[in-house]
Amino acid sequence: MSNRILPSDRSSNKISTDRILIVDDLPINLTIAKWFLSKYGVQADTALSGAKALDKVKQAADSGKPYGLIFMDHLMPGMDGIETTRQIRNMEKIGLLANGQDAPASVPIIALSANAGSGSRTYFLSAGMQDFISKPFDAEELNRVLVKWLEAKPNIAPVSKILEMPIPSETPIPLPAPQKTKHLFIINPKSFARKEDLDELISAIKGYFTQKATYKESPKDGTGDLDEKDAEFSINISRFPRHAIIIIDKYMRNIESDTRVRIYSVGGEGNNFCCLNGIIGLSDIKNVDLALMPYGTTNDFVLLFGKEHREDFRNVVLQASAPVISVDVIQCNNNYALNNCTVGLEAAAVIKTISLNLRFEKLRRQFRSLTASFYTLGGILSLFDKKLLNQQYRIIADGENLSGTYVSINIANGPFYGGGKKPVADAVPNDGFLNVVMLKKTKNITPLRIITLITKHFKGEQAKFPEYFICRKFKEISISSDLPLYVNMDGEAFFDSELNISVIPHAIRITAVNGVPLNVAGTEGTDDEP
Description:
Elements: E1 19-23, H1 27-38, E2 43-47, H2 50-62, E3 69-73, H3 81-93, E4 109-113, H4 120-126, E5 131-134, H5 139-149, E6 180-187, H6 195-210, E7 233-237, H7 243-252, E8 259-267, H8 269-280, E9 288-294, H9 316-321, E10 324-332, E11 335-337, E12 340-344, H10 345-359, H11 361-366, H12 370-383, H13 386-389, E13 392-397, E14 400-401, E15 404-412, E16 434-440, H14 447-458, E17 469-474, E18 476-489, E19 492-511
Parallel strand pairs: 1-2, 1-3, 3-4, 4-5, 6-7, 6-8, 8-9, 9-19
Antiparallel strand pairs: 10-11, 10-19, 12-15, 12-18, 13-14, 13-15, 13-18, 15-16, 16-17, 18-19
Helix pairs in contact: 2-3, 7-8, 10-12
């Protein structure tokens, strides 16, 4: 099947394929769904209850422009989605929606359910619905439904690269959605300047979920730990590097296979790295989402959504109900990164900065602005490392030999890096490619010239200096050297002797809070730095 929506035997139906009704009792769900649908060029109306939905369906029919598709929430106060669907079918049967004309065919109604179990599809079909999507739904599921149930129409196609998901060769019946969702919070306490800020966030998490009466104290000691088998959410503090991997592994052992888990990385780039590696290491990740909650000094991946929306990603309510999108992941040997992998000078600067941070930990925590100063100092110290600046690299990228002497090698999955800088503006995090920028070491290059070029690199101006920069896209790249390799992956720095780096397309689902469009080159956003 191509990406074109298939024509159907309903071509003579008096149903407008560019009008859609979304029914849900939560305004935030309506906002998210409406934004997703706007990417397909269709007009979406909303209703906050079953009764209001019936009114809108009748008004649309009377106007001569009936709805072509209805998304119906299952559980709503008063008249639920099942009863509302039955009422619509009765109205169609007795001709109330015909407007004096031949009665149109039944409008497709798609159930929205967060608790769709193995028998849900039969249940929804028996109630007069045609299909269902689990909440929170993602772009791929939405695309499947629109392809299946709307007639061929040129403007019904994803306009954003991020939302453009491949249509399978067939349109299968969807697998049963998870029956329930659990929420695992992993917090790096070092990302908070004040303990009061951390306490406030934890209170917000508990306040949101306890309203649903699903928070349970441990019956063993009453200390506040969660009984993970029953509780809807769990709060965990990361105490040391890669602790998140241990937390995720232990937590998931007690989770039933039909349960969806949303894992919240609360902190900076390093915490994201650990949570990502914990998720990728699971034997089954199809029901696991990653929610990035940016705290700490840097969390560049969320800048894809615009700096003005950074606070939205800290909102527990928005994160808990947010839809998801699929993005690529960088694999480097046995490690995985969401955003960036650097080799050479930039990685060495990070390693030296980490050393300075550890040496002056108390001072840095008291004056957090010193972090940027330490990074600058780490970079300066690296500039005077002659072995590093003259290091020979053996590089094979998609079969092409690019071996040589390089100052720095930047492998990007997203455009932002280095605390809000945008060095790789055309990097798209789900195009199946890695953007590689390599700064060549020439005979006449000096430390001062390197500083100038790195500054231009952070501004994304490499194309102005083709004699120094190589800018390409690859799927696989191997790097080795006779000297130790300085490596940095999303804030996790280490040494290695040989690197095998590749892209894993659509490897993980991340939350898109409020359905905010991704701000990357080639999509609907702008190319300006947020």
